[in-house]
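Key idea: predict the complex, not the pieces.
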Amino acid sequence: MSKPRLRREQIAERAALELPDGAYVNLGWGIPNLIAAYVPNDITIYFHSENGILGMGPRAKAGEEDFDLVDAMKVPVTLIPGAAFFTQDVAHMMTRGGHLDICILGGLQVSEKGDLANWRVPGMKGAGGIGGAMDIAVGARRLIVTMEHTAKDGIRKIVKECTYPLTALECVDTIITDLAVIDVTPTGLKLREVAPGFSPEEVQAQTEPKLHYEGAVPAMPIAAR
Amino acid sequence: MNADFDRKMNQKNKVYESVDAAVADVPSGATIMFGGFGGAGFPNNLIQGLARSGVNSLGVISNNCGTGDGELGILFKNHQITRVVAAFPGPGATHFQEQFSAGKIELELIPQGILCERLRAEGAGIPAFFSPVGVGTDVAKGKEERVIRGQRCILEQALGADYAFIKAYRADRMGNLVYRKAARNFNPLMAVAGKITIVEVDEVVETGTLDPESIVTPSIFVDRIVVARGLRYV
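Result:
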C-alpha cells in the first residue's frame, strides 16, 4: 500500500476540528503540539500549559521572548486576554480533576478498550519520562490521541492489548491518525472517517482489533494541499 | 539545644551574604528538591554553589534532570548525585541519561501531578493519600490498591527532603515570596516540603512593602534568602 497517507500537519488540521469555541484544552508533545496552528481564526481556545499557564497564545516573536514565559517545552510563548499563571499543583488539579474540556496526547499504542501507552518504547535507551501524561490521561473529560496509524516498520499501533508500558487504562475517547478517525465505544472501535483515497477495508488491514462501521464511511475533511 | 528553636531565633536574619554561605552546611548524602520547569524558575545559582562545595551522594527531587551542563546537569556531570525522583528526566539531560544507563543512578519515575501532590502532602502534614493516577501501570508496582468511590486507586506517600532549593522573583526580608510568570511552577510546592528552604531571588525588599494579596509563598516556609542575579537562564 504505497498511497500517500496524511502528513503530521494534516492529522493536526483534522484534530483542530474537534475543538469547540471557548474550550479549555491541553496539547501534549508531538503531533498535538502542531494543532494550535490550525484553530480557525473565529474561535478562541484557552490552551493549558502544564508548567502553569491557562490562556497560552502563540510563540513569542523573535526579539520579544521572555524566558520566564515559556511552555512545557521551553518555547517562549505569549498570553491571550484572560490568561492566568498558577502553581504546578493547580496545573494538575486542572488535568487530573477533570476540569479541562479536551486533552490531546500523542500515542505509541492504543487498545480496543481505550488503554493508552505513550511514554516508553520497551528496550529504548535512557530512562523515559512520564511527565504529565498519566495525570492528563486519568483526568481528561475527553481524551483524543493523535498518532501515525502504524509504526515506521509497519507494526500496528491500534491493538487488542497494549504491550508497551501503560499510561492509563480505558482513557482514550477518539483516535485521529494519518488513515482514520476512530471512536472508542463500549461496543468496540467505531470507524468515523477515513483518510481521502482510503477504504474502510484498507484501514482495517492496518488495525488489529475489529473496526465497526455501517455503509459508506465519510472522508476526513482536509483542506486540499 | 533544640534545632527548631535555633531556626526560630534566626528568622530575623534570613538574608545570606552569598550563595556559598547559604549552601555551606549542606552535607554529602543530603536529599534536596529543586524547583524549575521548561528552563524557567531553576535555582541555578544555588546549583552552582553545590557544584563548588563539592558535596556528593546527593538524592534529588526535581521535575527533570538538567539540560546538558545547565540546571541540574552540572551536578550530574560532577557525579554528585546518586538518587533521583523525577517526572521527566528529559532527553537533553545527557549526563543523567549516561549515568542512568550505566546503572550508576537510582531513579524513581513518577507522574508529574503526583509529584506535586506528594510535596503538598508533606507540607500539609498528610502522610499518604489515594489517587487513580498510575493504576495498572509501572508506577503502581508495590503500592496498596483500593477501590474508592467506584474508582481503582493506589496509595501514594508524602515526599519531603532535607533541603528545598527554589527560585523566586522577589522576597522581603522575612521571606515572603512572589514569583514571575511561568517561573513559579514547582517552587511554592517545594518551599513547603523541605526541612530547610533556601530561595534565590532577583531582589530583596523591605518587609511590609510587598502587597499581602500578591504573596504566593508566606515567609513561614522560607529559611534562607540569597540575592543571586545572573545565570538566570541556562
